[in-house]
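Hi, here's the filled form for the chain we discussed.

Project: internal
Contact: R.S.
Residues: 318
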Amino acid sequence: MTHRIAVYVRDGLLAMELGIVHRLFGQAHSDSGDALYEVTTCTDVPGPVRTDSDVHILVERGLDAVAEADTVIVPASDADYETDGVALSPLFRVVTNQRLASICTGAFVLAAAGVLDGKRATTHWKSASRFAELYPTVLLDPNVLYTEDGNILTAAGEASGIDLCLYMIRQDFGAAVANRVARGTVVPPHRSGGQAQYIDTPVPQTYGTSTAGTQEWALSNLGASLSVEDLARRQSMSVRTLSRRFMAEVGISPARWIVAQRVQRARELLENTDLTVERIAHDTGFGTATSLRNQLAAELGVSPSAYRATFRVGGRLA
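And the returned structure, exactly as it came back:
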């Protein structure tokens, strides 16, 4: 069944974010080639909508499109940068129980309506302080690329909208579909770390070359007994220097990065193969099925079998 998405746009729309939503969800197809999403752009009053560039877009649908949608996505607008925040949007006169998502400062729209009260959310790091002042009841986390709390998701910035869309596709239709969309868009299916790696801070002169080569090597050897010391030797750095470099490039420590990549690989194997949990634990470097179960429970809150049952329909449970 096709999942229907309404993209709610406003005056001053950040055009890139509208393009991200249409492009990524528009590329999601089943194995037989059927479109998995139907994406419709809507606004308060149908007609021309100004963007943040020198063009306008013609939006033909009004808020009636929201009533038909399973998911409503709110991109940012340049109006979100006004010091007093945004006014309550007419959108929330028609929203019922749809999944809601925002990109960048689109989170201000959700917060102004109160739907983020008591929920974890994020927004662009440049706007985080003002957001926290305006909406103190929101559990703001300015250090992540995106959040999910119940049926509400938020993305940190424009490019983080890509991460969020891929995450939603993965949740809806599994890793294989999301990975195909990522390849078609020439972006990674998952980025580790958070906004810390993008905040405008001076780069210490003691940093050496990029750790990209070491990361690639580690990804090819996840089944081995990797340690931070192994990565440091591969990079020809001390552990301390490597750790600083990782934090600057990726936003997390090397040890956390290794675990994150192993969890990601385990998820892919659970979704796309019939390998037993024991074999997946071995191939991803967790060693034992118990270790893998504990790690998945800590990271995702589910067991390997429950995860596979959700994301691999018809798959043999291990």
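Let me know if anything looks off before we file it.
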